[in-house]
Each structure stands twice: as C-alpha cells, then as structure tokens.
Prior knowledge:
Layout: E1 3-10, H1 12-15, H2 26-41, E2 45-50, H3 56-62, H4 74-98, E3 103-105, H5 108-111, E4 112-115, E5 118-122, H6 125-132, E6 136-140, E7 142-146, E8 150-154, H7 156-167, E9 171-179, E10 184-185, E11 197-198, E12 200-201, H8 206-214, H9 219-236, E13 241-246, H10 252-257, E14 264-267
Parallel strand pairs: 1-2, 1-9, 2-6, 3-6, 4-7, 9-13, 12-14
Antiparallel strand pairs: 4-5, 7-8, 10-11, 13-14
Helix pairs in contact: 2-4, 3-4, 7-9, 8-9
Bound molecules: 3-methylbut-3-enyl trihydrogen diphosphate.
Amino acid sequence: xxxxxxLVKFGGSLIxxxxxxxxxxxxxxxxxxxxxxxxxxxxxxxxxxHGGGSFPHVSASKYRTxxxxxxxxxxxxxxxxxxxxxxxxxxxxxxxxxxxxNAFSIQPSAIFIVRxxxxxxxxxxxxxxxxxxxxIPVVYGDVVIDLEKGCHIMSTEExxxxxxxxLLEDYxxxxxxxxxVDGIYTKDPFKFSDAEFIPIIDQGNIDEVRxxxxxxxxxxxxxxxxxxxxxxxxxxxxxxxxxxINGLIEDNLRRVLLGEDVRGTRIKY
Length: 269
Ligand code: IPE
C-alpha cells in the first residue's frame, strides 16, 4: 500500500495582510503550524506550501515578473521577487521550528526549471529523501528559470502539481488548500451576497464552474480561484483529491487531517 501524503497550502492572503506590504499574520501562521503538528503526530507525511501574499506581489507587479524578461530591469525584478518570497518562507519555517517540527525549506527555483511555465526539469530526489527522513519540506510560490520567457512566477499550486506528478507512484496524495473563504462559489462571495457555495467539483460540473470563475471579479479571489481549480482538477484526473477550506476557521485544517467532515469544496474526478 502506498503511504499517505498530504500537500497543505497556506494561502498567501491567509498568512499575510494583503493590504500592507511585507506584513505576516503571525498568529494565523502559528495556529496553522499547530494544526499541522497534529497531522504529523498521526504519522502522516506532509509537504507544506505557502503563497507569497503581500511579500513578493509588490515587486512582482512593479517588475511585471509574471511576463518574464520584458525590459532591462527584469533580471533585478526576478532577484527581488525571489528574495521577497524567501523572506516570508523564512518566517513560516521559523514558526515550524519554534513548534519543534522538522521543517526544511526548499526553494522551488532550486529544484524546478520550466519552459513557458511547464515543468521541464525537476530535482525531486531532495523531497523524496526529506520525506523518508520524516521531515516536512516547506515550499512556496517562487520565481523560477523559464527557458522560453526568462523567468516564470510559479504559484504554490504549480509547485504542488510538479511535485505530485513525480511522487504519485509512491504516495497516495491528498491536497488541502487553506484559504480565506470556505471554498468555491458561483460568484465572488466578498462582493455578492447571492453567491452560492459549490461543495463538489467533478466531471459533472467542471465546465459550469469554469464559467463562473472566468467572470472574474478580482484577481485574488476569483481570478486566483480559476487557476487553482484548473490545476486541482487536472490533478484529480491522476487520482489526487483536493479540498479547499477556510483557514481562518480554527481547527478546520486539523479536522481535515483527522478525517473529519469539514465544510469546503472537494475537487475530484
Ligand atoms: C505567488 O505564489 C508567488 C510570487 C508572486 C513569487 P502564490 O500564487 O502561490 O501566492 P498567493 O497564495 O496567491 O499569495
């Protein structure tokens, strides 16, 4: 039997204050770390990934890093975005260490090379060894080398995809996405009171859901959600199930790890 492996994302909007550049929400990071600790004590293998939130997004938009190398400042921008993303990673990892957990930072840019955003090369061995050592690899949204565009902003979801497709043979993988909403809605729930919650996304409604999410009401909530759903649905085709939950609600993550029923959007095939 394959071992169970959880990939847990701490959303960037959840662990930073998006309205204030470079502002972590330490209390939330600490609580999520404690909840992960329970999963570890159950003997699960866990990879944690986190978004960048208000750390790399400022420099990324200033230097238009998502477009690749576009002008003479792009290389400096790439370096700055990389530094800013790593800064938040340092904060997250230090909270894991405080909690006595064997968290080990892995820079996605040091293990992935992509071509036009698609993984061309990956050095998966480090992650496999860390999991064998019963350590917690901590990855994050990073800027990586792109053989076509110069550089590419690789979101945590893309990192999860790259990792899972290479770990699938050995592990039974489940993804838990901790965000600031309960899951996917028919409209942006922050703006529309008639937004309806979607508990399950599968073959039966994926096209309909894509339709809801393409009518984007904001980069972070719905635009971002479309990207997440597309990747998670693709992974579902490989038997990797996901759930998007509200990480602002205490114990949600812990309960999912313990196999309890939690409100969230489940993505399966
Ligand atoms: C963004 O990563 C990383 C950079 C801008 C370098 P994510 O896409 O995973 O982050 P959030 O969750 O949207 O903040």
